[in-house]
C-alpha cells in the first residue's frame, strides 16, 4: 500500500497580524506622509476640518502631494479667518470631509504619519473616520514637536513652535497657517531633525518614534544593549560588568522585547535600576515558546537574579507528610525520602502547607502534638483531647488500628486518590458554623478547604504527567510546520520545530537522539521543578496540541481530586454559604 503523502494542515488564525511599517526600517528607506490640518478650532468631534495638506517623502525625495479645502458644514469663527485667511465663501464649493477621506486614507497607506503636535491632527482625522464609517488604519505616528524637544536644547531654540523650528532649519517654505505650506515646512523640519538623530544612535523609524517619547537618560544611554539581538523565541539575560545575571526574561521575539526596556512604556523603578547596572544582554535562542519558558525557569533557579521577583527560591518549597509510627501525625519537611508514602505538595511556602494541615486537622482527628508516642508508655494528654479534638492516642484511648482508620487513612486516600471524606467533613463544619452565624470562622474553614483541594488537585495532575517515562507532543507553529516537545518524567528533555510542508517524524527522531537523559524518582516532581512541569502541562492541554507518542497511558484517578475543581473555584472566590449545599 502506498504511503499517503504528508500534507501540512491549515493553520488559519495562527499567523501573526502583519500591518503598518516595520519599526526596524531605516529612516532613509521609510516613506513619510507629513500632514497638517486647518480647523474651525473646536474639539475633534468628527467635523471642523477646513483644509488638509499632505506631502509624501522618502529619502529626502518628494513622492506626492495632496491638498484640498474641506467644507466643515458649519460657520468659521472670525478669528480663524483672520489667522488662516480661509473665508466662508472659499469653503462653500469645497467637498465635505466624508468625500475627502477615501483619497487621504489611500494616500497615507503604508507610510509613517508625521505632524507637528501630532495628537491634535490625528485626533481630528480619527474622529472624522469614526463619524463617517471609515476604518482608521492606525499608522505609526511621529511627532516633530516631541522629537524637537528631545533633539534641540533651549540654547538652540527658545521654543518648539513650527515657525521657530522653520527659522532654525531655514526651511524652503515658511509656515503661513495654511495646510500645504505648513506641511511643506514640517517636511524640512523633519529632515533637519533626522540629521540630528544620528548622534543619538537613532537609525530606524521605531527608534525615532520611541526617542520622541519621554525616556530616561539611562534608557537613552543604554539603548545600544538592544542592538544585534535575534528576532526569534528565546531567553534574554541582562548581565552586569562582572558577568553576573541581573535579570532573566523570555519572549517569542527577543529583539523586540529587549528594545521595549528602552522605551517610554517601561516605567518600573526596579527595571530602571537594573538597566543602570547592566552592561550587556545575552540571548539564548530556543525552538519555541515552551522551551524558552522552561529555560527561563531553570536560569532563574540556578542564578537567582536580583531583579527577578518570581521563582527566585524554588528550593524553599515544602511538603506535608504523614510520619511513621503507630500514631502518625502531619509534619512539614523540606524534602521527601524514598520511604515516605503519604504526602502532599509541593507547597510554595510553609504558610500554605500549614493552612492545608489545618484543613486536615479540622476534618480528621490527627494528633497535633510533636511527642514521640510509645505503645508501652502513656503520655499525659493535652488540651485538644479535653476539647474532643484529638482521640488521645498518647493515653492509649484508641488503638493503632482505630487511629489509622479514623485519622491516617483519610489523609492517605485524599492525597493519593479521593478526598471525598475530607471534603465532606469540612463542608459539614462550614454548615454548622454558618447555621450558628459564625461567618468569620466559617470563612477560615473555607480557606482551609481551598488549601486542601488546591494542593491535592495540583499534586495529582503533576503525578499523572511525571509518571510517564517519555511523551512526545506537537503543536502547529505560527508560520507553518510543527513545534515539537519531548518530555521525560515531567521534564522537558528536547525541543525543536519541523519545517513547513515536511513530515515532522525525522525532526522528532533527531530530537529524541539528542535529548537529555532523565531518570525517574520518588514523588510527583522527581526530575524537574513543579513550575516547569506545570508549564509543560499547560502547553500539552491546549486544544491545538497533539500527543504523538507516549510510553504509557496518561490518566488520573476517576474519583480523584480533579472532580472538585468547581468546588475549589467557589471556595476561592465565593462565600461560605455558597458551599453549604455542595456535595460533589
From TrEMBL:
Transmembrane segments: none
Record keywords: Exonuclease, Hydrolase, Nuclease
GO function terms (MF aspect): exonuclease activity
InterPro entries tied to this protein: DnaQ, GIY-YIG_endonuc, GIY-YIG_endonuc_sf, GIY-YIG_UvrC_Cho, Ribonucl_H, RNaseH-like_sf, RNaseH_sf, UvrABC_protein_C
UniProt-listed SMART domains: EXOIII, GIYc
Pfam families: GIY-YIG (PF01541), RNase_T (PF00929)
Name of the protein: DEDD exonuclease domain-containing protein
Amino acid at each position: 500500500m502506498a504511503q499517503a503523502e504528508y500534507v501540512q494542515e491549515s493553520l488559519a488564525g495562527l499567523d501573526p497580524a502583519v500591518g503598518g511599517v516595520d519599526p526596524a526600517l531605516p529612516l532613509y528607506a521609510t516613506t513619510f506622509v507629513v500632514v497638517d490640518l486647518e480647523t474651525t478650532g473646536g474639539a475633534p468631534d468628527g467635523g471642523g476640518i477646513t483644509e488638509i495638506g499632505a506631502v509624501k517623502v522618502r529619502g529626502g525625495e518628494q513622492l506626492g502631494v495632496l491638498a484640498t479645502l474641506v467644507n466643515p458644514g458649519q460657520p468659521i469663527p472670525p478669528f480663524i479667518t483672520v489667522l488662516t485667511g480661509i473665508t466662508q465663501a472659499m469653503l462653500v464649493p469645497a467637498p465635505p470631509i466624508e468625500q475627502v477621506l477615501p483619497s487621504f486614507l489611500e494616500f497615507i497607506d503604508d507610510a509613517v504619519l508625521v505632524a507637528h503636535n501630532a495628537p491634535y491632527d490625528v485626533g481630528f482625522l480619527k474622529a472624522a473616520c469614526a463619524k463617517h464609517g471609515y476604518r482608521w488604519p492606525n499608522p505609526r505616528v511621529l511627532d516633530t514637536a516631541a522629537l524637537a524637544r528631545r533633539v534641540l536644547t533651549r540654547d538652540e531654540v527658545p521654543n518648539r513652535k513650527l515657525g521657530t523650528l522653520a527659522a532654525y532649519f531655514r526651511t524652503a517654505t515658511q509656515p503661513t497657517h495654511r495646510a500645504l505650506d505648513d506641511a511643506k515646512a514640517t517636511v524640512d523640519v523633519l529632515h533637519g531633525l533626522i540629521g540630528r538623530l544620528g548622534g543619538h544612535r537613532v537609525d530606524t523609524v521605531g527608534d525615532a518614534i520611541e526617542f520622541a517619547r519621554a525616556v530616561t537618560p539611562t534608557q537613552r544611554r543604554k539603548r545600544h544593549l538592544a542592538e544585534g539581538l535575534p528576532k526569534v523565541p528565546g531567553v534574554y539575560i541582562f548581565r552586569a560588568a562582572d558577568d553576573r545575571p541581573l535579570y532573566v526574561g523570555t519572549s517569542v521575539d527577543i529583539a523586540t522585547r529587549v528594545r521595549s526596556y528602552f522605551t517610554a512604556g517601561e516605567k518600573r523603578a526596579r527595571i530602571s535600576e537594573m538597566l543602570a547596572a547592566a552592561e550587556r544582554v545575552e540571548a539564548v535562542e530556543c525552538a519555541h515558546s515552551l522551551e524558552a519558558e522552561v529555560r527561563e525557569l531553570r536560569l532563574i533557579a540556578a542564578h537567582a537574579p536580583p531583579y527577578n521577583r518570581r521563582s527566585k527560591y524554588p528550593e524553599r518549597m515544602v511538603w506535608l507528610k504523614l510520619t511513621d509510627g503507630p500514631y502518625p501525625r502531619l509534619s512539614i519537611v523540606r524534602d521527601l525520602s524514598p520511604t515516605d508514602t503519604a504526602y502532599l505538595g509541593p507547597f510554595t511556602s510553609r504558610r500554605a502547607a500549614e493552612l492545608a494541615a489545618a484543613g486536615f486537622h479540622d476534618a480528621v482527628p490527627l494528633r497535633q502534638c510533636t511527642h514521640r508516642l510509645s505503645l508501652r508508655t502513656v503520655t499525659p494528654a493535652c488540651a485538644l483531647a479535653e476539647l474532643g479534638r484529638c482521640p488521645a492516642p498518647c493515653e492509649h484511648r484508641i488503638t493503632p488500628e482505630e487511629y489509622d482508620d479514623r485519622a491516617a487513612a483519610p489523609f492517605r486516600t485524599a492525597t493519593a486518590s479521593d478526598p471525598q471524606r475530607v471534603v465532606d467533613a469540612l463542608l459539614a463544619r462550614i454548615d454548622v458554623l454558618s447555621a450558628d452565624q459564625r461567618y468569620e470562622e466559617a470563612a477560615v474553614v473555607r480557606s482551609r478547604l481551598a488549601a486542601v483541594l488546591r494542593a491535592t488537585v495540583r499534586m495529582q495532575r503533576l503525578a499523572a504527567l511525571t509518571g510517564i517515562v517519555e511523551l512526545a507532543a506537537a503543536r502547529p507553529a505560527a508560520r507553518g510546520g510543527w513545534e515539537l516537545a519531548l518530555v521525560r518524567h515531567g521534564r522537558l528533555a528536547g525541543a525543536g520545530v519541523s519545517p513547513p510542508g515536511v513530515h515532522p517524524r525525522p525532526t522528532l527522531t533527531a530530537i529524541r537522539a539528542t535529548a537529555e537523559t532523565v531518570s525517574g524518582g520518588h514523588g510527583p516532581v522527581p526530575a524537574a521543578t513543579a513550575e516547569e512541569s506545570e508549564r509543560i502541562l499547560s502547553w500539552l492541554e491546549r486544544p491545538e496540541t497533539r500527543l504523538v507518542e507516549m510510553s504509557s497511558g496518561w490518566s488520573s484517578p476517576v474519583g480523584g481530586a480533579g472532580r472538585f475543581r468547581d468546588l475549589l473555584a467557589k471556595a476561592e472566590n465565593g462565600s461560605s454559604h455558597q458551599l453549604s449545599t455542595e456535595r460533589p
